[in-house]
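Quick entry, no commentary yet.
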Amino acid sequence: MRPLTVLARPWTERRFLHRHYERLLDALGDRSRFRVVPLRELRDAPRDRVVVGLRHDIEERFRGGLETAALEAERGLPATYFILHTAPYYGDVGWRRARHDESLIAGLRRLQEMGHEVGWHNDLVTLQCVHGIEPREYLAGELEWLRGHGIDVRGASSHGSYWAHRLRYHNNYFFADFDHEVHEGFPNKYAVQVGERRCELSKGTLREFGLEYEAYHLGEDRYFSDARFDADGRRWHTDGVDLDGLRPGDRAIVLTHPDYWDPSVARKAVRTVFWSARKLVAGERSWKIH
């Protein structure tokens, strides 16, 4: 990400404010038209109304996820929050570092208390090929730890990390369930070349880890995401959801990233400056490749 692009976000993404997201939530509050469910219920939900799954990938700012979750809880709308195990809030990338951070567990419990679902944001190929950690044993251990603390993790969603784009793999390549798929631009399905080292990918299945679904494989009819950009480089916004174009029986997923949304433009500006300064000091791509 270019520094000037990031610093311009308070202007270019000035509409990515909570009050704008609340417009969508208020519309979805019409129970006569919409049935809002966590993603684990999307496939089997009654289709007498439009079925909507609100999905959030928390990539760097756990606090932002809690803020969005509160807005939804005020309206009785459940959502699904995917936590990223390579994110700073989860702990230093390493062997089960998260188990030492009870504040994370408290935050995840808070999400569930508000009526939301917690899922696993999958960066497992990165974990193996970049950080040198065996992903099968790691995933089993982390899920055991999370579930042992009452966090009911049933679903996963693939993370599109910097390294995934640089080394041309898809994090879903960890799951053998999707061996029939090759994503365009990501040809390294079974092995990844990392410098002079060839990384043969470990594989597992959703079922063996007690996972019921992958968020990109739910068979929805419509999918909206603020990770998408138009031809002019503008990020998709929730104002672009055409609710009138949805019909009873349709299943739609709306994905937003709390990292992009703030209570105010002033808060966004301050956060952007501090985030940029931290990245400048630490080095955005300073992770060591083992």
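second:
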Amino acid sequence: MSSLEDLLDSNYIFTSEEIDVFSWRVYSKKYYYYLAWGIIRYVGHLLNSFRTVIYLPTLFKVKKNDIVVIVTSSNQYDSIAPLLEDDSLKIKVIGIDFNGVAKDNVLKFPIFISYLLSIFFIPQTLYYYFTCKNAYIRKSFRYGFREYCLTFAYRFVNRVWLGLCKPRLLIILTDHQMVARDMVKSAKESGVKTLYMQHASVTDHFPRLITDYAFLEGSDAKNKYLNIGKGQTDTIIELIGILKINGAINHAVGERSVDNIGLCTNEFDDLELADNLILVLKKDFKITLRPHPGDPRYENWREMTQKHEILFSDSRNQRASDFLEGVNCVVSYNSGIITESLMLNKPTFSFQLSHKVFDHYGFVEHNIVTHFDKATDLANELNKIRNAPNAINWKNRVKYYCDTIDTPYEGRSSELVKKLLVKYSI
């Protein structure tokens, strides 16, 4: 760890005022975070980290020619799952702070080592906090004291670990969480090649690319990252389509009718707005509600399905592709599942589920989805296409976000990824 700037970059999720994570519902329960609160949070996680002592053998299971993939959630795991079917790639999946469902092939990371060493960096973290003049950064220190303090020790542990086992390649699936972004820096310091692969749509507020390679889903992501880096990057970029829909798109024949609506929510969405939408739609349609697996209100969403007697998709256990097979239309707001649904040629719409109006991924701007802010208008549109949804080619709308559409690699992204790994000898 060389500087405060480096520390802030590793913790981009907290330091970026453009992302403004503290306005998100998951972080906004406490509108003002006290430093003491952040330190208490740090101590709690430190004590909890001792549960990972049993995962110490993970460090010795990574060999020289392995490919290491870092995952922190079920969504990230699902995005890489098609590649795991090929044993020849020698992929080792490492779960760090992994809050997904239990997977036999996910090796849990013994993060307790980093936590123990982080104790020695408490004075330096406090020094940066008290000398920092930026109000937003100071707020991020108060909330994320755990992450800031951990980063120093985490870098040291991972640099030693990766330097000893020397994997062939390190893959991250998110570029703004500390446990992934800083792992890349450790790998670079240890002479290990690095690759970033998307697990979801990206925004203009993401950080610059720092990996050796980036396998992105489409022109949307590429253009956004080039704009972020002002066109200057040493990262080699390739477009691979949406890997997690690999194969499923080949079986997509479109829908004969619209009966079961898949309503997909996330942390940005308002419970009351979703409740009102369900009241209108359930008069004419079956509804399956699927909340984001990381939403802290997960059980509130489950209770909503019981209240309205509609179906519930347990996103913490059911893969998105399996959920999509069970519905014939998707309604969501600022969610990557919009592109996945369109790829399967399903009628897909955006609805204003948040009080804050924003086009997070540019879906409306690029005309890949029609947006509604009144439940009755959406219901009318659904009834209009109910018996003839295939009159529209939904899949072709998403080409800008999924580069393999209408190419020989449509539905075969895993083959393209393997070819690129050979091309770059990694």
